[in-house]
Amino acid sequence: MAYRISALLKTAAALALVATTLAGCDAGGTGAQSVHAVGSSTVYPFAKLVAENFSRSHPDMRSPLIESTGTGNGIQLFCSGLGPNTPDMVNASRRMKPSEFDACAANKVDEVIELQVGLDGIAFASAKGGIMLNLSPRTIYEALAARPYGKAQTAKTWADVDPALPADPILVYGPPSTSGTRDALKELVLVVGCASNPAMAALKSRDEDEYNQICTEMRDDGGYVDQGEQDNLIVQKIVGNPRAVGVFGYSYMEENADRVQGLLMNDVPPTYENIASFAYPGARPLFVYVKKSHMRAIPGLEDYMKEWVKSWGKDGPLARIGMVAMPADVMAANAAKVQGMTLLTRAELEAE
Fold first, then answer.
1. Interatomic CA distance for residues 219 and 147, integer angstroms
2. Ranges of H-type helices in 36-151
3. Are the folds of 34-120+285-350 and 121-284 the same?
4. How far is CA 255 from CA 32, 129, 155, 260, 290, in A?
């Protein structure tokens, strides 16, 4: 009798757990009933378009829920654990860091698929008919760093950092510290500009932490203004002030081509061709990360990944809204990851 009572109690507990899990999965239209993705504001419009096309192709499934949280916050949510209260995917405008991979693994998110989905550029732009600048990583670093080369920031105008530039006040609207665009701005532009000074190479070998701080810390005296995760707010700011400069993804510049103009960097304009060839210094890859363990529980997650593969070609729907297509061999390699559900390893991230 005691054995039968124990068995019945275990069965009841199991049924209660299943009921709780199903209730949680259905809450808010997320979890097991629909794909849930968070992350980059730059990748957001592309992910939304892929989600819309997925819904048209799979009318029997609920539409994916796509949220713009910023890359850093999105990866933190993604890595917080498994289950219906955590996202299935994160969109990222930079690659996952080894430390973030470790945070995922510590929370049992230890089967992650990484897909590069396209290319974008860190575009510097102004309003149509507004200020025109021919920038370089060095001039951008000297204009925006909190302590350029470890010294006090004294530049008030663009001419202060380069006499060839106009004597207009430095006013740059850009992304916050949680944004992948901000991370890419640091790595692709600021660090490159900082490293152009020979003394910085010596500092890096002596004190890498101080080197990173000097090379990547942004000024906070009004020369650089954080505009949050929504790139459309930056567009609005520079359209309202023709002497201001904005920093956002190339796709937003393309989307607002009737209102803004791209600024040169190293004499190279931010165009589709120059980003695709990496001739433009701010070119960068875009990624999505997926929890393989959620494949079994989330209807449509694998099909949503396949929708990305169908969409990222040079003549595909994503290119029509501003995404720069990857080289053919990179497309093929990432399509193979979807086909084989290939897992990301920490060694791959360390090798970068």
1. 8
2. 44-57, 71-78, 98-106, 137-144
3. yes
4. 34, 17, 32, 9, 27
Say what angle helices 208-216 and 198-206 make with each other, to 10 degrees.
Answer: 140
Q: How confident is the model at residue 154 (pLDDT cuts 50, 70, 90)?
A: very high
CATH fold group of domain 121-284: D-Maltodextrin-Binding Protein; domain 2 (3.40.190)
pTM: 0.77
Token pair of 122, please? 């860190």
* 87 burial level (CB within 10 Å; 0-12, 13-18, 19+): buried
Task: Judge whether 175 and 187 are in contact, CB under 8 Å.
Answer: no
Superfamily per CATH, domain 34-120+285-350: Periplasmic binding protein-like II (3.40.190.10)
**Structure tokens of 311?**
């969409």
Mean pLDDT, range 136-143, rounded to an integer: 97
CB 53 within 8 A of CB 305: no
Cα–Cα dist 33/256, whole Å: 35
The domain spans of the chain are 34-120+285-350, 121-284
What letter would DSSP give residue 86? S
d(CA 340, CA 8): 42
The whole-angstrom separation of Cα 64 and Cα 66 is 6
- What is the C-alpha separation between 132 and 134, in angstroms, rounded? 7
| Residue 179: predicted pLDDT | 86
Q: What is the pLDDT of residue 4?
A: 41
Q: How far is CA 54 from CA 62, 118, 231, 304, 308, in A?
A: 10, 18, 25, 6, 9
pLDDT above 70 covers a percentage of the chain that reads 90
For 232-253, what is each residue's pLDDT tens digit? 789 999 999 999 999 988 888 8
Report the distance separating Cα 249 and Cα 124, nearest Å: 9
User: Do 316 and 325 contact (CB within 8 A), yes or no?
Assistant: yes
